[in-house]
Design brief:
Elements lengths: L2 H30 L15 H13 L4 E5 L5 H10 L2 E5 L3 H11 L5 E4 L3 H8 L3 H4 L3 E5 L11
Parallel strand pairs: 1-2, 1-4, 2-3
């Protein structure tokens, strides 16, 4: 089998596996966690050292807005919004994950979700005067898939 055919096959199967993973995640969320619940394990992938660092930063700075790239299912987004009571702007490129995050975070009013690539999101956000004229906390967490924007 030629190298080109193998690359095409691998790409095709990787996309199918990603779609299956998205569907499985969707079912798990709808069945087990359809709404964000604020608890100790929520946010920052449950890594307590990240939460401690974030809380320490909160004690030193007065942020008016928080910006996050890579909403995923919205746990960190919800944690930001409830912990700080500030406006949170977050983006998720994957349409299905964005919709799940919308579902889970729908009762938290200080969250603005965008279904877009993080690079375009940052450009869009930087055009809003209320954001660029205030101090913001920025959490760059978009790191999934074939195209990694954090590079």
């Amino acid at each position: 089998m030629s190298s080109l055919i193998m690359k095409i096959r691998d790409h095709y199967f990787r996309d199918i596996i990603n779609q299956i993973n998205d569907m499985e995640t969707s079912i798990n969320v709808i069945v087990n966690s359809p709404k964000y619940v604020h608890k100790d394990s929520a946010g920052f992938n449950g890594v307590m050292s990240r939460k401690l660092a974030f809380n320490e930063i909160l004690g030193c700075y007065q942020f008016n807005n928080l910006i996050e790239t890579g909403t995923y299912l919205g746990d960190t987004t919800g944690y930001f919004a409830i912990t700080t009571n500030k406006t949170v702007y977050s983006c998720e490129k994957n349409k299905r994950l964005y919709q799940l995050a919308q579902l889970r975070l729908s009762e938290i009013k200080n969250i603005n979700l965008y279904n877009m690539d993080s690079r375009e999101f940052i450009k869009k956000i930087c055009q809003q005067k209320n954001i660029i004229n205030d101090e913001c906390f920025v959490y760059l967490d978009a790191h999934w898939g074939k195209d990694i924007p954090l590079k």
